[in-house]
């Protein structure tokens, strides 16, 4: 087992003390070289404290004089005999829209009752902004998030989901604070795979996870046969939040969360929907009715944008569009047809990030959708 030791000898109690700590790690694994080495770690300010761990801005050094970083170190408790999907994802999936892991180490800390706790430490690239701060800094200053930014971030989240979902992995906790934004570039990366699940095999699906405002109806109803489409619902809520500057559905508990959703989507179960299959006319009328409701709810967005949201915020997870279908939607034509965007608090337009240079495995997953998603060459 790898052991984290304080430079001054004793093992720090990291459950209570974080700020400004420096210590030495005997075995830190570089993800790039897969080699172990010795390093000093200097932990600075705490940038996140979630339900499962803490994240601190940190620096690394081989010699205690030259420091590299900043990095973000996420520390979580390591449970014996539990395989970490979070580590597996961070170690093995390299993707432009997933936060990248640079190093990994294990450490121990003393508990209050004199015992020892084993911890996993993920040393990730540090990205100073989140989609949450991006949304609220705009709205707090009286600005809306520009439509192009909304599309830019939504497309990249979908691109990351395309890869995770092709492996039958759901992220399970998509929300604005788990989307990191590289300042000045428009690049968005998903972080926090602590709630991720591989939805296959005989594993019992988790029943309580995902922050309430972003929980899909099937999770609020405690259904166990949910799919990776729960992340698409969360994305719909995130897009709504980017448009409105506040969470789209704000319930206090599962029931009131469903009530909030019903204000936009109508009551669940939609008894009329079963009869809709028999009548195209009725189906059309229902669509018009929903369309009008969405138009009233989001008065400042365009026709195609409403059409897009109607494909995402769907009760029935089978009818909810998947990542590749959504990436091909007209909603993203603005990204296919344009080259520049204006980052927040900048007066100079910059190139949009490279959104369409798909890897071989992404192309394979996209299949026929590939040609619909990439910008046309004429
Ligand atoms: N690489 C990073 N760079 C900068 N900030 C980060 C990074 N990774 C995580 N954070 C910030 O720290 C917060 C907490 O991290 P993370 O979500 O992984 O921990 P968690 O314990 O699962 O939190 P939660 O319960 O809130 O989901 C994130 O929401 C994000 O704002």
UniProtKB/TrEMBL annotation:
Picking any one GO biological process from the record gives: cell differentiation
The alphabetical list of record keywords is: ATP-binding, Kinase, Nucleotide-binding, Serine/threonine-protein kinase, Transferase
Keyword Nucleotide-binding applies = yes
GO molecular function terms attached to this record: ATP binding; protein serine/threonine kinase activity; protein serine/threonine/tyrosine kinase activity
Query: Pfam families annotated for this entry?
Result: Pkinase
Ranges in a coiled coil: none
Keyword S-adenosyl-L-methionine, does the record have it?
no
- Gene Ontology cellular component annotations, sorted alphabetically: cytoplasm; nucleus
Task: Fetch the InterPro entries from UniProt.
Answer: GSK-3, Kinase-like_dom_sf, Prot_kinase_dom, Protein_kinase_ATP_BS, Ser/Thr_kinase_AS, STKc_GSK3
Q: Which family does it belong to?
A: Belongs to the protein kinase superfamily. CMGC Ser/Thr protein kinase family. CDC2/CDKX subfamily.
Please give the PANTHER family that the UniProt record associates with this protein. Answer: GLYCOGEN SYNTHASE KINASE-3 ALPHA (PTHR24057), PROTEIN KINASE MCK1 (PTHR24057:SF4)
User: Under which name does UniProt file this protein?
Assistant: YGK3-like protein
Gene name as annotated: YOL128C
């Amino acid at each position: 087992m790898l052991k984290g030791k304080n430079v001054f000898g004793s093992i720090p109690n990291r459950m209570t003390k974080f700020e400004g700590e420096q210590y030495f790690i005997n075995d830190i694994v570089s993800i790039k070289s897969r080699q172990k080495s010795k390093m000093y770690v200097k932990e600075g300010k705490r940038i996140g404290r979630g339900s499962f761990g803490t994240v601190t801005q940190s620096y690394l050094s081989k010699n205690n004089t030259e420091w590299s970083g900043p990095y973000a170190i996420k520390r979580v408790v390591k449970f014996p005999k539990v395989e970490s999907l979070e580590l597996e994802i961070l170690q093995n999936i390299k993707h432009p829209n997933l936060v990248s892991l640079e190093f990994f180490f294990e450490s121990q800390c003393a508990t209050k009752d004199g015992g020892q706790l084993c911890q996993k430490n993920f040393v990730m690239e540090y990205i100073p902004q989140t989609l949450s701060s991006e949304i609220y800094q705009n709205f707090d200053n009286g600005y809306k998030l520009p439509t192009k930014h909304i599309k830019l971030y939504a497309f990249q989240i979908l691109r990351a989901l395309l890869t995770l979902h092709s492996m039958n992995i759901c992220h399970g906790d998509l929300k604005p604070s788990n989307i990191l934004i590289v300042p000045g570039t428009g690049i968005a990366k998903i972080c926090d795979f602590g709630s991720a699940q591989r939805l296959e095999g005989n594993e019992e699906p988790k029943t309580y996870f995902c922050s309430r405002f972003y929980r899909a109806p099937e999770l609020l109803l405690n259904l166990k046969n949910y799919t990776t489409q729960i992340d698409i619902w969360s994305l719909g809520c995130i897009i709504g939040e980017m448009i409105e500057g506040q969470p789209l559905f704000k319930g206090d508990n599962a029931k009131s969360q469903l009530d909030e959703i019903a204000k936009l989507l109508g009551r669940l179960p939609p008894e009329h929907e079963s009869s809709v299959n028999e009548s195209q006319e009725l189906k059309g009328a229902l669509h018009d009715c929903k369309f009008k409701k969405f138009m009233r709810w989001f008065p400042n967005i365009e026709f195609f944008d409403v059409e897009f949201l109607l494909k995402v915020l769907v009760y029935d997870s089978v009818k909810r569009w998947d990542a590749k279908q959504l990436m091909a939607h007209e909603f993203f034509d603005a990204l296919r047809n344009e080259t520049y965007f204006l980052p927040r608090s900048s007066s100079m337009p910059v190139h949009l990030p490279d959104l369409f240079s798909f890897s071989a495995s992404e192309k394979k997953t996209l299949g026929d959708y590939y040609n619909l998603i990439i910008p046309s060459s004429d």
